[in-house]
Design a protein that fits this description.
This is Diaminopimelate epimerase. Its EC number is 5.1.1.7. Keywords: Amino-acid biosynthesis, Cytoplasm, Isomerase, Lysine biosynthesis. Pathway: Amino-acid biosynthesis; L-lysine biosynthesis via DAP pathway; DL-2,6-diaminopimelate from LL-2,6-diaminopimelate: step 1/1. It is found in: Cytoplasm. The chain has helices spanning 34-41, 58-63, 95-107, 182-187, 240-253; strands at residues 9-15, 18-24, 51-57, 79-85, 115-120, 123-132, 136-144, 147-156, 159-167, 171-176, 206-210, 214-215, 222-230, 234-236, 259-265, 268-274, 279-292. It has two domains: 9-141 and 286-290, Diaminopimelate Epimerase, Chain A, domain 1; 147-282, Diaminopimelate Epimerase, Chain A, domain 1 (Roll). A hairpin with a 2-residue loop joins strand 5 and strand 6 (123-132). The model has no long low-confidence stretch (mean pLDDT 96). The protein has five helices and 17 strands. By secondary structure, the protein is an alpha+beta fold. It binds the ligand N[C@@H](CCC[C@H](N)C(=O)O)C(=O)O. Ligand LBFN2T5F binds at residues 18, 51, 85, 91, 94-97, 170, 206, 230-233, 236, 239-242.
Length: 300
């Protein structure tokens, strides 16, 4: 008699069109190889996504050796976002991913409160689920501090640009381009990977391009438009950590260490609040489908 295995369940979701395959694997039963991640994220031969979020207990990941130690602010019982880029590489943090992960935890009944901690390799991230239903949620993530690490230059979209290196748990180079209009930004060709200065980004970096800040009314201090080329993926329609890095760099550029910025990306809009100690990312999450992988998916 053949051995039967449980089907591999998945959910598909996105945060401002930065899309993810969500794999519920609470006890870490799954061997999550690079090949499996790449195949699942492939838009022709798989489900298609910018990244993959394994949903597992932090303690189970530690016992399985996926984590060598629990990151700061993470406990064994916390739900942990084991994040992979579409090329299979591991990233420390994913801001849109945390919003979608929190929405999934709430909608799947894994947590029963609207405020809880999501584990990430960059540390525990407190989330506030403002509203949710099975397909849609609004979530704020405490992203930790956005640390400015000095200036660097890149070659991107045929231009040599200088920006701020920003650490949001993962590395970024955020470039505010003088005089750039939203229409100019939309017209840039971001198909080629940016060239980064040798030695300054040993782990690589995500690169953001932004329009200069515009004054805003109401709850916002400023608005801006942003596009991003993500490490391990390519251009995506949004990047939560990149939005925080972009806001921090743009505020720094106008001599401010704090402020609230509404940022539009190709996939939607979010609100970023920066203080010297903490950054917050508020935006939507959508869960769009669930299903089972067909046995032998990888073998084909
Ligand atoms: N899309 C994410 C960032 C994902 C990780 C990034 N590509 C990296 O390698 O650092 C976000 O929403 O923050």
């Amino acid at each position: 008699m053949g051995v039967t295995t449980a089907p591999m369940r998945f959910v598909k979701g996105h945060g401002t069109q930065n899309d993810f395959v969500i794999l519920p694997d609470p006890d870490v039963a799954l061997a999550l190889s690079d090949d499996l991640v790449v195949a699942l994220c492939d838009r022709q031969r798989g489900l298609g996504a910018d990244g993959l979020l394994r949903v597992a207990r932090a303690g189970a990941l530690r016992r399985a050796g996926v984590l060598t130690a629990l990151p700061d602010g993470v406990s064994d019982d916390d739900w942990f976002m084991d994040y992979r880029n579409a090329d299979g590489s591991i990233a420390e943090m994913c801001g849109n991913g945390v919003r979608v992960f929190a929405h999934y935890c709430r909608a799947a009944g894994l947590v029963e409160t609207d405020r809880f901690v999501v584990g990430s390799r960059a540390g525990g991230r407190a989330v506030q689920v403002h509203s949710w239903e099975p397909s849609a949620a609004e979530v704020t993530v405490e992203m930790g501090p956005a640390r400015l690490d000095g200036q660097a230059t890149t070659l991107i979209a045929g231009r040599k640009l200088t920006g701020e290196a920003v650490d949001v748990g993962n590395p970024h180079l955020a470039c505010v381009v003088d005089g750039l209009t939203p229409a100019d930004l939309a017209a840039l060709d971001l198909t080629q990977a940016p060239v980064l200065p040798a030695g300054q980004f040993p782990r690589g970096a995500n690169v953001e391009l932004l329009t200069p800040l515009q004054d805003a009314d109401g709850d916002l201090d400023f608005t801006a438009h942003l596009r991003v080329f993500e490490r391990g993926v390519g251009e995506t329609r949004s990047c939560g950590t990149g939005l925080v890095a972009g806001a921090a760099a743009a505020l720094h550029g106008v001599g401010r260490g704090e402020g609230t910025v509404g940022i539009t990306v190709p996939g939607g809009a979010v609100i970023v609040t920066i203080t010297p100690e903490q950054a917050w990312l508020r935006g939507p999450s959508r869960l769009v489908a669930r299903g089972d992988l067909i046995d032998g998916f990888l073998g084909g």
